[in-house]
Amino acid sequence: MDAITPATTTASAVPNAPTEQADDPFVELAPFARTLGMALAIWEPGRSVVTYSPEASHLNTHGMAHGGAIMTLMDVGLARAARGPGMAEGIVTIELKTSFMRAASGPLRCEGRLIQRTATLAFVEGSVFDAQDRLCAHGTGTFKYVTRLPEQARAARRAASGG
In 3D, which of 17, 147, 8 has the Cα closest to residue 86? Predict the structure, then answer.
């Protein structure tokens, strides 16, 4: 694999996405992930691939992707694997452990896989690879399923916090 080309985050561009995903409010990545330039390449039940090309401001003093940026990619990729298309619940990170195997640069991708799900928790693992398909980081995470607030309640919460 020579390069990793991020897909757009619309439902029609996500491979293996059922057509009913178009109305799924979770098809779009969170604003923070989009700000960093992350894109959802594959999203299906129990599996995700999220891509990311670090910008200069995302690099450490050695010119490599900052560990915090790689952990964010891991968090986004694992959360996507935990919360498949069409699920009504949202998801929040409870715990995330990341082991770094090598310095990472250039286009990156996180492949997430759901290991086990209970009524309230998801246990997920994932790996971050560079454009040469080398393993850069591996992680495991625990995520909690939460009820998403209706838009009206979210807007009221944002207004109350000044956001």
Answer: 17
- For the segment 63-100, what is each residue's pLDDT rounded down to a tens digit? 999 999 999 999 999 999 999 888 888 899 999 999 99
* Domain residue ranges in the chain: 11-160
CB atoms inside a 10 Å sphere around CB 135: 12
CA 28 to CA 17: how far, in whole Å?
Answer: 13
Is residue 53 a contact partner of residue 7, using CB atoms and an 8 Å limit?
no
Separation CA 21–CA 43 (nearest Å): 10
Judged against a pLDDT cut of 80, whether residue 157 lies above it is answered with no
What CATH number should be reported for the domain whose range is 11-160? Answer: 3.10.129.10
To the question of pTM greater than 0.85 for the whole model, the response is: no
